[in-house]
Amino acid sequence: EVKQVIDWTYLKTGENLLGFAQMIEGHSKRSFSGSTDIIEAVYFSSQLLASAPFRSYRKIIDLTSDGKQNVANRRVLGAEGPGDMSRIDESLGVLRDRLVANDIVIN
Q: Any bridge partners for residue 103, and if so which?
């Protein structure tokens, strides 16, 4: 499951930064089942950027993962379920290329 745990926050002052850091510390790292869905994380992040309430000169998705794509992503394979995992790398590349073409940086 991919979700936003902290709402968009405008960081301008030291007080803003401290409050943001405290919000981050307040969220414990969940234990995951071993599944890694990088495609969904990148797609979800791009949707968050598209709905951001602030104007930004740079749009960056900074993704950290502990593994490679190991989930048959429904955006790639359709809602019907698992399928051919060989399409995963190609689809991640297509998504990445689309976002880069729209001036979104992926770290």
A: none
Give the mean pLDDT of 36-50: 87
pTM for the full model? Answer: 0.73
Residue 61 phi, psi (nearest 5): -105, 115
Question: Nearest 5°: phi and psi at 92?
Answer: -65, -40
Q: What is the DSSP string of 17-77?
A: HHHHHHHHHTSPPPPP-S---HHHHHHHHHHHHHT-SS--S-EEE----SS---S--HHHH
From the list 89, 41, 36, 47, the residue with the least C-alpha distance to 62 is 41
pLDDT digits (tens, 9 = 90+) for 65-102: 776 777 765 555 554 444 455 555 557 788 888 899 99
